[in-house]
Structures are given as C-alpha cells and as structure tokens.
C-alpha cells in the first residue's frame, strides 16, 4: 500500500487563492467543492474522483481548506492539534445510529429468555475478539477460533493465544466498566496487560509503555507508514488523552461515538506499547461507549467490518495524519463500519424472530425441555456436529453444572447420545428424535 500524497502546504494554497480567487472562478468549481466537502475527500483522492475534469486541483483545495479551517473543532494534546469537522453526513450518521441503537428494547423483547440474550452476546464478543486479533496478524481461522473459545480449551499457538486474550479482555471490559468511569493510564495499561498476556518474549512488556523509539508501523511491503511520537512523551500524551476523554468541553459538544473513535485513533497514533496497540485501541473504543451507557454496542462486532476493509482502515489513519491530523477521515471510516456491523446485527434480529417462535412452540409441546435445551437442539441440527459440556457452558454463559445438567437431561430424554473421547464427554444429536420434536 502506498502512502497517500500530502495536500499542498497552507502557504501554497493561500498564494493560489490570493492570485486566482474571484467570484467567477468560485462558481466554476462550486460543484466540485460541494462534492469534496460532502464526501470529505482527501487530496489524494481528487485525481481519480474527478478524472478527466479540466480543473485546477490546488485552487480547489485552497477553497476546501478554507471551509474546513472555518468549521474545524480543535482538540489540543501536548502541543499537537487534532482537527475534527462535523459534516452534515456525520451528523446524519450519528442521528441514525442513536435512533437504531435506541431500539435495544425491541431486540430484547424478541428474545424469550436471558440465556438466549447471553448466547448472542457471547457470540458477538467472540466475533469481535477474533476479527480484532486477525487484524493484528492472528492466522487462526474464524471457525477454528470459535471452536476453541466454545470448547474452552487451551490455545495451541500464538495466534490462538491472541484471540483468547482478546475475548477474555472484552469480557472483562463488559463486566467491570461502571457508568461514567473516568479513563486513566492504569485502565489503559490493564487492558493491554490482559490483551497481551503470555504473548511477549519479554513479559515485562505486558501493560507497560514502551521505553524506546524502535516501534514503527510498516505496510505489507515493508515501508514505514507511521513513526509514533518519542517514547519520552508517551506518559504525558496518554495523560492528556485521558483528560480529553474525561472532560466535557465548554466550547463544543463531541458525541460519545465520535469521542470513542478519536480515542481509538489516538491510541493507534501514539502507539504507547511495544505491540498490541491496535487491539488495545479497539478495546478502548468499546470500553468508552460502555462507560457512556451504550451497552447495546456489546452486541455489535465492529472489528469484523473493519477486517473486511484493512486497506481503507490504514488509509483512514494516513489520510488523517497527512492532512493536519484531521481525524474526520478516521471518524467517517469508522461510522461507516459501525453502520455495516449494526446492519448485520439487525439482520440477525430479524432472523431470530422465526427461530424464537419455533423455540416457544417446541417448549409448549415439550414442557420437560427448557429454552437452552431447545435452542441447542436447533443449533446442533443446523451444524450437524457434537457438543461438549464446556461448549454448552460457554455458549450460554452458564455454570459448568448447569450445562452438564442440561445435556444429561437431553440424553436421558433420548435427544442426545453420550460418548467419550479420552476423558471428555461428547453429546451427539439423535436426528430422528429431533425431527419428531420439531414438528
């Protein structure tokens, strides 16, 4: 991936405007100006976006810069200034997300039991942990990773350890983040420590800020695309990031989702740790939104959408960095991926309506079964694979004894057959009995 071309300097665009700016020229380029601002295009995107147009790109960019400078909100951190422009499209995206996220109760009313809510939440945490780790190089497939997590088995290699740590950390954040909790350096270090447990040759790196400038970000081709700030400034930078996150600016309001995205950006930009910065940044995005009572986003695996566009993700960082640290590019990208992840979740909710109806009808006709037992029969019928007690426990977030009782109960009623592999019990579905139950 190539590094985007930097926009012309302020001096160059100001000179261009002073020499060629007039009402007639502005009218000529107005349509292009409106497109650049509404889509929030980067300088590097203009030649392809307006291919074939007879256009003075530097003059156009001069007008673009004027508009953005006038509407920008400044975020000052240790002498560095981030710029954020709340465009009409961003305002619309945030409104749409708030309206859709406000439908949480509609989703929960579709779930006939707490156990099924837990099941989907566990699945979402798994998806987020797997995708976030794969973004950082974990080579384990999604199916193999989910099987490891569901069976609660020990990781076999570094990639599986990354995924397990990510899942454990996301679960920790969900269960230990009270409303309006202030962000501190200690919280950031604790999340990193859990995220990287037993993955460094030097264990002292876990939860510890870097002590040199050897950390750099490379492209797949081996090109340096980002050199983080000097390690001597990390403590101060992180302290100011925490102050930004914790404060309510009297100058302007920053929407919580936007603030969470800026936090994500800043951790990636500062790169305070020797490794695991990306996973920590994405985990902190969730941490902040949960602290702001956006708990519904627990169900949404944003990293899955990001993983499907890794080039765009890298460019969003680079567009911001090459254009006066303008985080609007990064915000625009992340809002798009949140929308994709939320749409995927909404499709799931629609799908569960018919499945839940089937579960309730089955229980009505088979009163000896509970909701978990009926649901696991449906799942096993779909996947055509056996299940273990550990997997049952993990799937529904219940105790080992509850999972064991559920499966032994199904075995006693003839729905499952129990076998052993080594010291482990496995349960296989009786297809004929299942079909008669689901009629």
Secondary-structure map:
Elements: H1 10-20, H2 23-39, H3 46-49, H4 57-71, E1 73-77, E2 80-84, H5 88-101, H6 104-110, H7 114-135, H8 142-151, H9 158-175, H10 185-195, E3 217-218, E4 224-226, H11 234-246, H12 256-270, H13 277-291, H14 302-307, H15 310-322, H16 328-365, H17 371-383, E5 387-388, H18 389-396, H19 400-412, E6 416-421, E7 424-429, H20 431-437
Antiparallel strand pairs: 1-2, 3-4, 5-7, 6-7
Helix pairs in contact: 1-4, 2-4, 5-16, 7-8, 7-9, 8-18, 9-13, 10-13, 11-12, 12-13, 12-16, 15-16, 16-17, 18-19
Concise synopsis of the structure shown:
This protein has 439 residues and is mainly α. Helices cover 62% and strands 7% of the residues.
Give your account of this protein's structure.
With 439 residues, the protein is mostly helical. The protein has three domains: 62 residues, no CATH class; 270 residues, Fido-like domain (Fic-like fold, Orthogonal Bundle); 72 residues, Winged helix-like DNA-binding domain superfamily/Winged helix DNA-binding domain (Arc Repressor Mutant, subunit A, Orthogonal Bundle), CATH 1.10.10.10. Helix content is 62%, strand content 7%. The protein has a three-stranded antiparallel β-sheet with strand order 5-7-6. A two-stranded antiparallel ribbon has the order 1-2. Strands 3-4 form a two-stranded antiparallel sheet. β6 and β7 form a beta hairpin. α8 packs across α18, α10 packs across α13 and α12 crosses α16. The protein is elongated, with a radius of gyration of 25 Å. The termini are far apart. The model has no long low-confidence stretch (mean pLDDT 88).
């Amino acid at each position: 991936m190539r590094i985007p071309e930097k926009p012309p300097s302020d001096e160059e665009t100001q000179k261009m405007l002073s020499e060629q700016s007039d009402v007639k020229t502005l009218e000529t380029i107005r349509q292009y100006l409106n497109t650049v601002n509404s889509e929030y295009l980067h300088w590097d995107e203009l030649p392809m976006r307006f291919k074939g147009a007879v256009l003075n790109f530097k003059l156009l960019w001069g007008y673009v810069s004027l508009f953005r400078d006038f509407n920008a909100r400044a975020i000052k951190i240790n002498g560095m200034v981030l710029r954020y422009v709340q465009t009409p499209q961003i305002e619309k995206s945030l409104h749409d997300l708030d309206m859709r996220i406000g439908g949480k109760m509609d989703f929960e009313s579709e779930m006939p039991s707490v156990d099924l809510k837990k099941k989907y939440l566990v699945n979402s945490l798994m998806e987020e942990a797997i995708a976030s780790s794969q973004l950082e190089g974990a080579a384990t497939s999604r199916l193999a990773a989910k099987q490891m997590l569901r069976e609660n088995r020990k990781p076999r290699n570094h990639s599986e350890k990354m995924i397990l740590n990510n899942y454990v950390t996301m679960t920790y954040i969900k269960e230990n983040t009270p409303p309006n909790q202030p962000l501190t350096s200690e919280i950031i270090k604790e999340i990193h420590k859990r995220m990287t447990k037993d993955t460094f040759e030097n264990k002292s790196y876990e939860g510890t800020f870097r002590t040199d400038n050897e950390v750099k970000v490379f492209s797949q081709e081996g090109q340096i695309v980002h050199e983080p700030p000097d390690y001597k400034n990390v403590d101060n930078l992180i302290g100011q990031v925490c102050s930004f996150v914790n404060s309510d600016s009297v100058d302007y309001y920053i929407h919580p989702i936007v603030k969470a995205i800026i936090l994500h950006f800043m951790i990636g930009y500062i790169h305070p740790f020797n490794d695991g910065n990306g996973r920590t940044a994405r985990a902190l995005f969730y941490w902040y939104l949960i602290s702001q009572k956006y708990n519904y986003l627990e169900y949404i695996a944003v990293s899955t959408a990001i993983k499907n566009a890794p080039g765009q993700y890298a460019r969003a960082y680079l567009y911001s960095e090459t254009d006066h640290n303008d985080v609007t590019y990064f915000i625009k990208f992340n809002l798009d991926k949140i929308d994709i992840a939320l749409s995927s979740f909404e499709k799931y909710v629609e799908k569960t309506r018919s499945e839940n109806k089937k579960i309730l009808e089955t229980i009505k006709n088979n009163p000896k079964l509970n909701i978990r037992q009926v649901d696991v029969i449906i799942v096993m019928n779909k996947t055509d694979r056996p299940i273990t007690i550990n997997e049952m426990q993990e799937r529904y977030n219940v105790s080992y004894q509850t999972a064991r009782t559920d499966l032994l109960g199904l075995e006693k009623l003839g729905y499952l057959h129990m076998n052993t592999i080594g010291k482990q019990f496995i349960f296989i579905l009786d297809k004929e009995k299942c079909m008669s139950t689901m009629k």
